[in-house]
Design brief:
mainly alpha; 4 strands
């Protein structure tokens, strides 16, 4: 893809998202889809509209349509993207319903699996693995590729949802991660992944000024699910030529949400609590306490940490074999040392302070960012 073919969908997606966000906010308010403060939430302001994910989805759609009208998409590519949006609509629907009425985690999981299955049959698949020394590729049969793909999409979708606990957090992290994965798709020669990544970046950039602390509109589950789903699909487009163990590169780009999810699962399993339950021990809760209750400082800290991982992810593509394994081990050790020094590996709930507001239960549901 040429530079002009990237800039146009990016601008269209960003502009459409920015223009549609106030309208989506009014719609959410009219329908009563608003955040209701309670002692478990970071946000203490009443009636902040949810459904922000609709504006991001509209922006993405506009960017894709602009590329199609400019003749940048072949028919097979357009059909793949139509399949992606079909799955996205499923998640937008279930997210919107959950934002308004609440929905059981098991039911949400069923719809997430349905959306992942649609993406799989649209051609977004984890269908082979590559070993790092001789670059031998092993194709996975459908009976293995199908569950592996579903697991990946659902895992990324929920990881991004767990990170949506502060204003602008999930949107900003999604923008940084999507930018990194777009670069990887560009280097790998996957135009569908590049286009999808570009419009996702643009749509989030158009929405972020309304969502950055203090947010005037929140993503809700509607947006957190859609962003996570879109990121997982872009990663599936770009992983194919990754030099190291096939999936290390996108995993590194998604390190912050995945680490937060892994620690959450460990805590709840250890304490014999529901895996899909909520708590106030996520990374952003600890950083919020450390920053004296400043959401902006906590959010910017996680932006920086994610950007560091994304730079490392891009760097991983230029190394192979033993050096790649050695670099991976070094990064892993240094990462856990850094997270421990920052207090982000703490498995106990941070104590509330006079400056810091109570933590949000929406960290497990996408409310508040």
């Amino acid at each position: 893809m040429e530079a002009l073919e990237i800039v146009t969908p990016l601008i269209v997606a960003a502009g459409t998202s920015a223009l549609s966000t106030p309208l989506v906010g009014r719609l959410a308010t009219a329908l009563g889809v608003v955040d209701v403060p309670n002692p478990r939430k970071v946000n203490l302001r009443p009636n902040i509209p949810l459904l922000g994910g609709l504006a991001i989805a509209i922006g993405c759609m506009a960017g894709i349509v602009s590329a199609f009208l400019l003749g940048q998409l072949s028919t097979p590519e357009a059909l793949r993207l139509a399949g992606f949006f079909t799955g996205g609509v499923v998640l937008l629907g279930v997210g919107a319903y959950d934002d308004r009425f609440g929905l059981d985690a098991k039911i949400k999981l069923v719809f997430q699996l349905a959306a992942a299955a649609i993406a799989f049959w649209a051609g977004f698949r984890l269908d082979f693995i590559t070993e790092p020394f001789y670059h031998l590729t092993y194709e996975l049969p459908v009976w293995m590729a199908f569950p592996a793909t579903l697991l990946w999409i659902v895992a990324v979708t929920n990881a991004m949802n767990l990170m949506d606990g502060l204003d602008g957090l999930a949107t900003g992290l999604g923008t940084i991660i999507a930018t990194t994965l777009t670069v990887i798709c560009w280097e790998s020669g996957h135009p569908v992944g590049v286009l999808l990544g570009v419009v996702l970046v643009g749509a989030q950039l158009g929405f972020l000024p309304f969502n950055f602390p203090p947010g005037r509109i929140f993503l809700g589950d509607t947006g957190a699910y859609f962003i996570g789903y879109a990121i997982s699909v872009v990663a599936l487009s770009g992983y194919r030529k990754a030099a190291l163990l096939t999936f290390i590169v996108p995993l590194m780009a998604l390190a912050v949400p995945f680490l937060d999810t892994a620690l959450s699962v460990f805590r709840r399993f250890r304490d014999r609590k529901r895996i899909m339950g909520a708590d106030s021990m996520h990374m952003h809760h600890h950083l919020l306490k450390a920053s004296g209750g400043s959401q902006r400082e906590a959010v910017l800290s996680l932006y920086f940490l994610t950007a560091c991982f994304c730079i490392i992810a891009v760097a991983f593509r230029s190394v192979d074999g033993v050096w790649a394994i050695a670099l991976l081990v070094a990064v892993t050790v240094l990462t856990f040392r850094l997270l421990r020094n920052l207090g982000l590996l703490a498995l106990q709930e941070p104590e509330a302070s006079a400056e810091a507001p109570p933590a949000s239960s929406k960290s497990a549901r996408g409310e508040g960012g």
